[in-house]
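DM from R.C. (forwarded with permission)

"hey, sorry to bug you on a friday — could you get me a structure for this? deadline for the figure draft is monday and I only need the backbone to look sensible"
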Amino acid sequence: FSLHKHTHTHAKGPAISSIVGNSEEPLPSLSDLHDCEPKLEFDDTELLTPAPLEKDVMVGDFVLADDSDLENEEPSNPLEDDFEELREQTENTQSTLRQNKCDFLGTDKQGRHIFGIYASRFPEKSQLEGFVRQVIKEIEPFVENDYILVYFHQGLKEDNKPSAQFLWNSYKELDRNFRKNLKTLYVVHPTWFIRVIWNFFSPFISDKFRKKLVYISSLDELRQALGLNKLKLPDTICDFDDKLNPSRSRAQQPSHPAAAASAPNGRPTMQFGVPLKFIVMHSPCLNSIPPIVRKCVDSLSITGVIDTEGIFRRSGNHSEIMALKERVNRGEDVDLSNVNVHVIAGLLKSFLRDLAEPLLTFELYDDVTKFLDWPKEERSRNVTQLIREKLPEENYELFKYIVDFLVRVVDCADLNKMTSSNLAIVFGPNFLWSGRNNTSLEEIAPINAFVDFVLQNHKAIYLIDVNQRTVTVD
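My reply, with the result:
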């Protein structure tokens, strides 16, 4: 099973680093400074005397190995009293939290979907299996693409602790896409239990899969690793982080990079991390199309490139993408002719994600997230009206330009395997996000459906030119 599995299975403790480097290399573990285990966490009885694992399942990500020795001495817990207090807060909010099995936290530096799962939302043991199945169902549409999982360990209690055998059985049943396309599993606020459970499973898991785990001991490290300075999380987790890291309060968190980049003293040559209107005013934009977007689209439209299998699905080399972004923002003329297709695709996604305001604007957020509630016979009219009448002109032109290109990508779906729904899953969160909170999974579904609808009905929506788009919609 998906999240639950990934969550506990990969808890390891390699070296320490808070910086995410090359996207194609495994990420190292982060700080080990707060390795304490509150008594509300798991005891180690069942871990030290586990049910035997069946050797006939050691295939795929598993390799046969001897059991490793497990430490059986639990360190003292200086935060026990604080954790008791947090437990009461968690119990008071449990009924409201459990309705959402996991959260969509946004996209990381390479445009990969990020999902968060919280130990504080686990139900009692008898309901864990159903909980895991529901989590899998929620994120299953997204795991065809590379994705990131963040597990928040704070709030795990005695009455909702899964057994080691349950974790093992859940992992065995994971679909291949869940394992293969999971790029990184971040474990936030790891404890002694996490390390014990990792030692328990480590001998049976392949090196490739094992390296996907990264320990995170503070929310600052998580924000830096994901490239998300704005991260809306439950108050109990933020409070717990403040107790573990008292020198860094939430009030000191840096502002969103887009806000800084959009300041009046930003370089006129900047195209990443600034408002679209800023780019149109300061760069040579034909029909409001930023130069770097046009370069990316031109490079990706070439035969032999546009039909690359998994285009926009696979993440490109992060360091190459960052280097290109820096060069563009300095005003350099970049040549993409010899750049890897996935790097160019990542650059285009990064442009959209780095806009100070989403391309479909904050104003349209509430309307678009109601898309699935609209009667089917009204969807065409409503979508057309939103795009033609509510988008600023530069947003309308750029959205139309990118949609036209994505339609050509869909035309090559037999080769690149990217249907309109696949592209909608990739581009939905990059076209639109909330200006208030994290976009929930419930809101992601209508956003993606909206984009899918536009891709399938683009001819009707863009039948007229932008200069003639003041029309009467019946």
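R.C.: lifesaver. Residues 1-98, 249-264, 466-474 have pLDDT under 50 and may be disordered.
me: no worries. Residues 258 and 466 are 28 Å apart (CA to CA).
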